[in-house]
Amino acid sequence: MVMGHPEGDVAVEGLKVEMLTNPSGIDVRFPKLSWQISTDQKATYQEAYQVLVASSPELLNTEEADLWNSGKVASDECLNVRYAGEELEKDTKVYWRVKVWTNHGSSAWSATAHWSFGLPYYKDWRGRWIGFDRAFPWEDISTFPTLGARYFRNEFEVKKQIKRATVYLMGLGLYELHLNGQKVGDAVLAPSPTDYTQNVKYNTYDVTEMLRGEAENAVGIMLGNGRYFTMRQNYKPYKIKNFGFPKVLFNLIIHYADGSKEVVSTSDEWKGTADGPIRNNNEYDGEYYDANKEFPGWDSVGFDDSSWLQAEYVQEPRGDYEAQMNENMKVMREVVPISLEAIGGDRYILDMGQNMVGWLQMTAQGEKGDTVKLKFAESLQEDGELFMTNLRDAKVTDTYILKDDQEVTWEPRFTYHGFRFVEISGYPREPKIEDFLGKMVYDDIRTLGQFETSDPVLNQIYQNAWWGIAGNYKGMPVDCPQRNERQPWLGDRAVGAHGEFYMFDNVRLYKKWLEDIRLAQKADGALPDVAPAYWRYYSDNMTWPGTYLMIADMLYQQTGDTSVIRENYAAMKKWLVYMADRYMNDEFIVTKDSYGDWVVPPPSIEAGTGQNADVKRPSALISTAYYYHFMEMMSDFARVLGKQRDIPEYQALKERVHEGFQQAFYQDGFYGENKMTDNLLPLAFGMVPEDDRQQVFDQVVETIQVKNNGHLSTGLIGTQWLMRTLSDFGRADLALKIATNTTFPSWGYMIENGATTIWELWHGNVAKPTMNSQNHTMLLGDLTVWFYEYLAGIKAGADSPGFKVFELQPVFVEGLDSVKASFDSPYGTIGSHWERMGEQITWKIKVPVNTTAIVKMPIAATGEILLNGEVLRSGEMEVRLSSGEYELVF
Fold it and tell me: Which reaction does it catalyse (predicted)?
């Protein structure tokens, strides 16, 4: 429905407003609303808006909006506009639309969007948790458990005509929900994992169209083990948390057309069984499926469940109930394999052509009892067999047992694998490549960025980065998807998350991760190395837990949302006090570090062959430099929150740390042991006195050019500051050299040796195989940040977080002929595409509606500069551009 314009409005043809909607089932009473404006007319900005919020679409007009009519508000803000209407009741669906006025006229009313307010309080939930808190005789819960899926069902009558029906569900560890014989939604491996002693996420589904009014209905729920029933039982219980057996709490709230409502919830009247087709499932070992145990129609009305058990009431999880604000996982892409080769006996090797994360869909036909095994690996041995050693004790095998001679198509539900190659054995006939299809699984988030250059090595690195980052989004950012680890290590994403922001719509994921970190904090202030803290690693160092501050800062700078600072400020401050109290000596040196510059490359590929890379090299230089950096960061946070009284304390401690750092680590023109990272950190953090900066930077350059023959020698920490620091000191050419190298150590070396994702180690092809994941993101460092903010030049404004005002200032580095990048910012698409033709550069720019770009010309552009064909004023090296598309030639 499109409303007419009030008298005096001038409607602009082609001016559109698109709402950025909230997820369903939120538990925030006054959420923030956002929208994007698009038009082909240049220099358009918003002058006012009007938001209508109502309890039904029919009431979304200026006279009847029963929840909120903002009126015409003079403002250019279109992001994070706080809903200021009636306080919402639980289980409420809310509809909204917006209209904007611009300097060129007004829009029509937007299309209708909606959000729902869920069950905010513990007592809002009806019914009880059900499950089976025990293993059955055919199950094993020793170190390598074989615990099958649990199945629960119930039939209920819908007595009247339905107006609206909503499911609220907590299924732990993982669930799949069915109504009347159909799966509900397209999520997989739901819900998002948490530390279930701290919080439990619930999901919400509108099932109005799936229920049968005035009839019998059936609900069925499958429960997988997930992170709740831990992948390794009774193995290092001092280290690995275990939460119990799978369980579920289900509420279906039905609103009838006559105004009444009814709640269907889990109880001991439900029926359940563990004797179903999924005989075992976990992330490490795979899924075992026996089709002979299937019970067709179990999720439909009329199924005979007389042989099933009564569901049992079980202890609820200790964590608080929370609406899940981040996206669930989903099958996001299908991957067609590229080859299928026999390797002897009944065994075949399937090559997907890409190291991916997810599972394999299989189509098979045989005889009852035929057993097909699918074993997964990232690479092959020289003899063509799977290379399994780097997976440690993860069994990574899916098993399917046929029940008859009918063709069947199957894929697992409660596991995933990191793999390129699959060994297929026991297949009942000669397999064909078209019998198999890869399913890539990660969080249901959009790819926002595009990046391409004239250099094929850079392009392949970017593609490898995309596959690795996406595949490791698992409701939290995990380190790797294939071996018996798959943990959300903080250190892996510190600066990397900044670059990921340009590539993926991951804001809600990283907000959730900040909560995971905050809830993992000990009462004394200690923060973990892994969060959620499935592994009890509290090693006390500045770099891994310090990611907490860096992610919060990144989200604020990139979105302008102050809530990420406000919600985490106290916990961050508490941690820094804890570290100072325990580990800062009288000279203001932070003496405690755990990992140092993790996984620095060996001096040569020969020296690294067969060597163990799991070597810790603690460094007080690194921990002290980071404490200095975090004091400056906390000062900025205090300014954002108006906590002016905290700033002098931070600044005073920062200066003392700086004095101690200089005294302890500055030699004659270099820091520490004159390693690249030793010098990069003080340069990147602004710790080097002005008179010494060039000399220290010269040491970095000499290390790269002379000692390393044009290569890096940094590990996880140093690589996070490498590319930007080189460019900031005028050596983008050297950064490009490092980025495009194809010899060891480099990202290009990985490609030359077959990598289609990013390795855990610079020498991952020859290192001792107990630690050489072929799909990690941590060694990307600041490379993807450099791609977008330096090569393409797209960066949030220094004094304007969130891209309302942003900068465009590429490094037009010699050696590249073109860079083409775009990024769907919160306001719309920002584009930067430059191309070198001889001595001339043509630079095309796209600026979204309601934003301003500060475009900075290269210092080398001393000649005539044309902007859309017109000559800029002489000496004009910076221009401000409103929305539209532009072309600069110089």
Answer: Hydrolysis of terminal non-reducing alpha-L-rhamnose residues in alpha-L-rhamnosides
pLDDT at residue 10, rounded to an integer: 46
The average pLDDT across 838-853 equals 96
Whether the pLDDT of residue 300 is over 60: the answer is yes
> What value does the mean pLDDT of the chain take?
95
Q: Which residues face 870 on adjacent strands?
A: 867
- Specify the CATH number for 331-443; select among 2.60.120.10, 3.40.250.10, 2.60.120.260, 3.40.630.10: 2.60.120.260
Q: Which residues are registered as beta bridge partners of 322?
A: 201
Contact 6, 99 (CB under 8 A): no
User: Distance (Å, rounded) from C-alpha 682 to C-alpha 725?
Assistant: 10
Does residue 785 come out as left (phi exceeding 0), alpha (psi in the -120 to 50 range) or beta? alpha
Amino acid at 130: I
Q: Which fold, 16-117?
A: Immunoglobulin-like (2.60.40)
* DSSP state at residue 780: G
Q: What is the pLDDT of residues 722-752, one digit of tens each?
A: 999 999 999 999 999 999 999 999 999 999 9
Any idea where the domains of the chain sit in the sequence? 16-117, 122-326, 331-443, 449-791, 794-889
The pLDDT of residue 861 is: 67
Burial of 320: CB neighbours in 10 Å, binned 0-12, 13-18, 19+: exposed
Residue 21, pLDDT score? 65
pLDDT of residue 22: 64
The mean pLDDT of 511-525, rounded to a whole number, is: 98
pLDDT of residue 9 exceeding 50: no
Tokens standing for residue 687: 């710790």
886 forms bridges with which residues in the sheet?
Answer: 845
One-letter identity of residue 453? T
Three-class SS state of 146? strand
Q: Give 455-483 pLDDT, tens digit per residue.
A: 999 999 999 999 999 999 999 999 999 99
**210/167 Cα distance (integer angstroms):** 11
pLDDT digits (tens, 9 = 90+) for 28-39: 889 999 999 999
CATH 2.60.120.830 is right for the domain spanning 122-326 = no
Q: Quick one: which of 47, 241, 22, 46 has its CA closest to 116?
A: 22
Q: Structurally, what CATH architecture does the domain formed by 449-791 represent?
A: Alpha/alpha barrel (1.50)
- Helix (H/G/I), strand (E/B), else coil: 515: helix
Is residue 815 a contact partner of residue 850, using CB atoms and an 8 Å limit?
no
3-state class of 251 per DSSP?
Answer: strand
**β strands within 137-189, DSSP E:** 150-158, 162-172, 174-179, 182-183
pLDDT digits (tens, 9 = 90+) for 693-708: 999 999 999 999 999 9
Q: Which of 141-145, 219-223, 568-572, 650-654 has the lowest mean pLDDT?
A: 141-145
pLDDT at 60 over 90: yes
Lowest mean pLDDT among 5-19, 135-149, 293-307, 680-694: 5-19
Q: What is the DSSP letter of 491?
A: G
Report the alpha-carbon distance of residue 759 to residue 378 in Å, rounded: 11
Q: What is the side-by-side strand order in the sheet with 828-837? A: 449-453, 818-825, 828-837, 840-847, 884-889, 866-867, 870-871
**Among 37, 44, 79, 18, residue whose Cα is nearest residue 883:** 44
Token representation of residue 600: 């620095």
Q: Do domains 122-326 and 331-443 have the same CATH topology?
A: yes
Determine the angle formed by the axes of helices 569-583 and 620-641, rounding to 10 degrees.
Answer: 150
What CA–CA distances, in Å, run from 604 to 457, 700, 709, 813?
22, 19, 11, 29
Q: What percent of the chain has pLDDT over 90?
A: 93
Task: Give domain 794-889's CATH number out of 2.40.50.140, 2.60.40.60, 3.40.630.30, 2.60.420.10.
Answer: 2.60.420.10
**How many other C-beta atoms lie within 10 A of the C-beta of residue 662?**
15
Q: CB burial class (10 A; 0-12, 13-18, 19+) of residue 835?
A: middle
CA 47 to chain centre: 34
